[in-house]
Amino acid sequence: MKRYFFYVALMLSYVVPLVLPGQALIKNAQGQEVTPQDLESFLAIAMEDFDMPGLSLAIINDGQVVYHTVKGMSDRENEQAVNEQTIFEGASLSKPLFAHFVMTFVEEGKLNLDRPLYEYLPYEDIAHDERYKQITARMVLCHTTGFPNWRTDYPAQQLFIQFEPGSSWHYSGEGYQYLALVLAKLAKTDAKGLEALFQERIAAPLGMTHTRFIQDSINLTRKATPYKEGVKLKSSFTNKAFGAAYGVHTEAQDFSKWLIGVLNGALLTEESYALLFEDQVSFPEDSENAQTGNTHWTLGFSKFNSPFGTFYTHGGNNPGFTSAFGIQRAQKWGVVYFTNANQVSEFGFELFAFLHEQ
C-alpha cells in the first residue's frame, strides 16, 4: 500500500489540463479538471492493490453523467468480464434510496415521521420491550431507534433495544426492516407489492431499468460473483423480504439516475427534500464519526464535511460487495461505485482524495 499512496501523492501534485478529442471533460466538485487518462491509471493501480475483481463507476458533473466505466471481472473463474449490464449488490446504499421512497408516503399523508410506528403496525419481534412503542420513522431513518444493526450479530438472535429510543445514535438495519413492514401495511400489500410501488414511484419515473430491492430473474442472471481477498464467496443473498436496509441490486449508470434525480429535486417537493437533508443527529467532535468527517446524520444520508465542501454520502458492505456514493448538492456533483470485493471501503476514500486533492 505504501507504493500506492506514493503514487497517489505524485498524481495529485499536478494537473494535466489536456482532454483528448472525444473524451468527456471531468471536473471534481471544486470545478477542477481531472483527465480521463489520470483517472484510468489511478483505477488500474487501485483495483490491483485492493484486489478488486470488478468495478462499475460513474461521475456526475452539473447533474449529468460525464464519466462511466466498467472494469475487471464479474466472475474470475469463468472469465466473465464486467459489462454495462452487470449487477452488483448495493448493500446499505439501499437505505438512502429507501428514505426517498418513504418520503412519498409522507407526502401522501399516509405516514407521519413522528408518529410511533406501532400505531401503524405492532411488531411482535420486540413486543417484549415496551420502549419500542416510542420508535418513529424519523428515528429509523436517522438511526436513533436503539436497535442493534442486526440481531443475528448476537448469540441470542433476538431483537433488543440498547438505549431509550431517540436518546442516542446507533447504526441499525433492523429499524429499516421494521419500517418496510409498516409501508407494506399502509399500502395493503406484501414485499413484492412494495417493490412494484417502488418501481412505480421512484425507478420508472427516473428511468432506472434494473435497480430493484426484490430481484427478478434478469437481475439475478446478470449478477456479479462476490469475492473476499480474491476468494470466491457463495452468495448469502435471499430474495424473500423487501431489503430496505440491504437489498438493492444495481450498477453505477442506473444508480446515478437516482442521484441525478435527487440533485435536481425530482419526484418530491422542496419541503420534502428539506426534511430529507435536514440535520437529525449531530456527532460530538471527539466521536469516531466526527473524526472521519461525518458530522451529522440526516434522514437516510451521512453528512460529510470536507475541505471541499459539504457532501451527502453513504457506503455499503454485503459479503463480497462494497459500494459508496457522495453528492454535493449545490454543484450537482456526484460519484458512485460498485465492486464485487469484500470490505474495500478504503478504496472510496482514496478515490475521493484523488478526485479532489489536486
CATH fold-level name of the domain at 2-89 and 210-236 and 247-264 and 295-356: Beta-lactamase
Q: What kind of sheet is the major sheet?
A: 9 strands, antiparallel
| Name of the CATH class of the domain at 2-89 and 210-236 and 247-264 and 295-356 | Alpha Beta
Low-confidence stretches: 1-22
Order of helices and strands: HEEHEEEEHHHHHEEEHHEHEEEEEH
Structural class: alpha+beta
In which order are the strands of the major sheet placed?
5-4-3-15-14-13-12-11-10
Please tell me how large the radius of gyration is.
20 Å
- Give me the CATH superfamily of the domain at 2-89 and 210-236 and 247-264 and 295-356: DD-peptidase/beta-lactamase superfamily
CATH architecture of the domain at 2-89 and 210-236 and 247-264 and 295-356: 3-Layer(aba) Sandwich
Question: How much beta, percentage-wise?
Answer: 15-25%
List the helices and strands and how they pair.
Elements: H1 2-11, E1 26-27, E2 33-34, H2 36-49, E3 54-61, E4 64-75, E5 80-81, E6 88-91, H3 94-108, H4 137-141, H5 173-186, H6 191-206, H7 217-221, E7 227-228, E8 231-232, E9 248-250, H8 252-263, H9 270-276, E10 281-282, H10 288-291, E11 294-297, E12 302-306, E13 309-318, E14 321-328, E15 333-339, H11 345-356
Antiparallel strand pairs: 1-2, 3-4, 3-15, 4-5, 6-9, 7-8, 10-11, 11-12, 12-13, 13-14, 14-15
Helix pairs in contact: 2-11
What does this structure look like?
It is a single chain. With 358 residues, the chain is α+β, with helices and mostly antiparallel strands. The protein has a domain at 2-89 and 210-236 and 247-264 and 295-356: Beta-lactamase (3-Layer(aba) Sandwich). It is 32% helix and 20% strand. It has eleven helices and 15 strands. The chain has helices spanning 2-11, 36-49, 94-108, 137-141, 173-186, 191-206, 217-221, 252-263, 270-276, 288-291, 345-356; strands at 26-27, 33-34, 54-61, 64-75, 80-81, 88-91, 227-228, 231-232, 248-250, 281-282, 294-297, 302-306, 309-318, 321-328, 333-339. The strands form four sheets. Strands 5-4-3-15-14-13-12-11-10 form a nine-stranded antiparallel beta sheet, with helices on both faces. Strands 1-2 form a two-stranded antiparallel ribbon. Helix 2 (36-49) packs antiparallel against helix 11. The longest helix has 16 residues, at 191-206. The protein is globular, with a radius of gyration of 20 Å. It starts with a helix and ends with a helix.
